[in-house]
Design brief:
The structure holds 2 protein chains of 2 kinds.
Chain A (H helix, E strand, L loop, with lengths): L5 H136 L3 H15 L8
Helix pairs in contact in A: 1-2
Chain B lengths: L1 H15 L12 H9 L4 E4 L2 E4 L8 E3 L2 E3 L5 H27 L7 H22 L7 H17 L12 H30 L12 H49 L2 H41 L3
Antiparallel strand pairs in B: 1-2, 3-4
Helix pairs in contact in B: 2-7, 3-4, 3-5, 4-8, 5-8, 6-7, 6-8, 7-8
The chains are: A mainly alpha, B mainly alpha.
């Protein structure tokens, strides 16, 4: 049991080396290569996933910035629009008021002018009428001075104290 | 008539293994045990008896050294283990390679892959460091070869090649040679020489020869102590358990009572479980220490 059988030692060495060679070539080598290939593939997938996540995060941050930007711009636009609308409304109101005032003024002037023209015409017509009536009277009773006086007196009554025609 | 005698002789011979006619005396026990643990030119298994004498060679004599290359039963079992290992691991490798990088590992091949990766990642790489992957196949072969020889001795076949110093010494010498060669290749001639002829820095000139004279033999013995320890540790561990189990079994045939039989079988079964653990542990230790020794010498600068 404890004495060395050199033959067995030599056989052991031989068998071990043969087994080492066979397993190295047909078992350990292929297994280790396959495992290393798989490890490389998994590592590659992990790296890719990490880089893709990084890219996605960058993209997300970019989008957030853009969204915030767009919102601010929209708010600014709305505010500007409201301000412009207010200003425009005020301008339009102002102009309308002014124009209204001008129109009313002009209308009043026109009415005044028309009224004066009408009064003038009336007066002239009245005088003409009176004169026509007087001429007719005078032709018939030219010498009757008392009748003339009567007509004038009547006309004065019609014209009123300030010369206006009473309604 | 002659045939009958031959059969009777054969039966008697077979019975001799368990004591003549199933009886064993205390005095016969050591020889009976060493018959079972030791090597021999025959195999007895399941009542059969195969003589290996037909395959025997004439011993080669080189002066005082005698080399007998005749196959013994431990050699046959060793060969059987090697063939079984090849039959197991070559298909495993094919399965793993066929599965390739696309599919996840699984099944028996996946389990073996886990063991292989454990050795690569937890034994070889941490102990040997850079360039470790080249040693993985060597360490794996040591582990599985030793494991196979340890475990096959626990089967009813009962022949344990690793319970023989000739075998463990050969394995230790292989481990030693690989260690020294890898050290030589990693350190170069000068660096390797320094692993034997080591001088501490700053030593006075006149002290150097004295230190060398003292330290060089110590360093050299230190180198040799490692494979010696490897060989003896494996041998002793594999022998001790078998000695205990065989002693317990032998007690059945000495005492020859049912109580002894029940007690012996119970204890032997418990020991067998422990033996199984030891078989794995010693194979692991042998492989791991080889990796440690390779790592030590490669980083001895």
């Amino acid at each position: 049991m404890f004495d060395i059988n050199l033959g067995l030692t030599i056989w052991t060495t031989f068998v071990f080396l043969a087994l080492l060679g066979i397993l190295w070539k047909f078992a350990w080598g292929p297994v280790l290569r396959a495992v290393e290939a798989r490890e490389a593939r998994i590592q590659g997938a992990l790296d890719q996933a990490a880089s893709e996540r990084e890219a996605a995060e960058r993209l997300l941050a970019e989008h957030r910035v853009q969204m915030a930007d767009a919102r601010r711009q929209a708010q600014q636009l709305v505010a500007e629009g409201r301000e412009a609308g207010d200003r425009l409304r005020q301008e339009i109101e102002e102009r309308a008021r002014t124009e209204g005032r001008v129109l009313i003024e002009r209308a009043r002037e026109t009415i005044e002018r028309e009224r004066e023209a009408a009064v003038e015409t009336l007066r002239r017509e009245s005088v003409e009428l009176a004169l026509a009536a007087a001429a007719r009277l005078m032709r018939e009773r030219l010498d009757e001075a008392a009748d003339r006086e009567l007509v004038i007196g009547y006309l004065d009554e019609v014209a009123g104290p300030d010369g206006d025609i009473q309604a | 008539m002659r045939q009958e005698v031959a059969v009777q002789e054969h039966a008697a011979e077979a019975l001799h293994v368990a004591g003549a006619e199933g009886e064993l005396t205390m005095e016969e026990l050591p020889e009976w045990i060493s018959d079972h643990i030791g090597d021999g030119g025959y195999i007895e298994f399941a009542g059969g008896h195969w003589d290996l004498a037909a395959l025997a060679f004439d011993p080669i004599r080189l002066g005082p050294v005698v080399i007998d290359l005749s196959p013994t039963r431990q050699f046959v079992v060793m060969l059987l283990v090697a063939v079984l290992l090849a039959l197991v691991f070559v298909p495993v490798a094919r399965t793993i390679r066929k599965r390739g990088i696309e599919r996840a590992p699984g099944g028996f091949a996946g389990a073996m892959e886990a063991v292989i990766l454990y050795f690569r990642d937890e034994v070889v790489r941490p102990n040997i460091g850079h360039g470790a992957d080249g040693f993985t196949p060597f360490i794996l072969t040591i582990f599985f070869f030793v494991l196979g020889m340890n475990v096959i001795g626990l089967t009813p076949l009962g022949i344990t090649p690793t319970a023989n110093l000739s075998v463990t010494a050969a394995l230790a010498v292989i481990s030693f040679v690989v260690t020294e060669i890898s050290g030589f290749r990693a350190l170069g001639p000068a660096g390797y020489a320094r692993t034997i002829f080591f001088l501490p820095a700053g030593l006075p000139l006149f002290m150097r020869p004295i230190m060398l004279a003292i330290l060089a033999p110590v360093e050299f013995l230190g180198k040799l102590a490692k494979p010696f320890a490897l060989a003896v540790r494996l041998l002793a561990n594999m022998t001790a358990g078998h000695l205990l189990i065989l002693s317990l079994i032998g007690m059945i045939f000495i005492v020859r009572t049912y109580l002894m039989g029940a007690a012996s079988v119970t204890m032997a079964s418990g020991l067998m479980v422990f033996e199984l653990f030891v078989a794995f542990l010693q194979a692991y230790i042998f492989a791991m220490l080889t990796a440690v020794f390779i790592g030590l010498i490669r980083h001895a600068h």
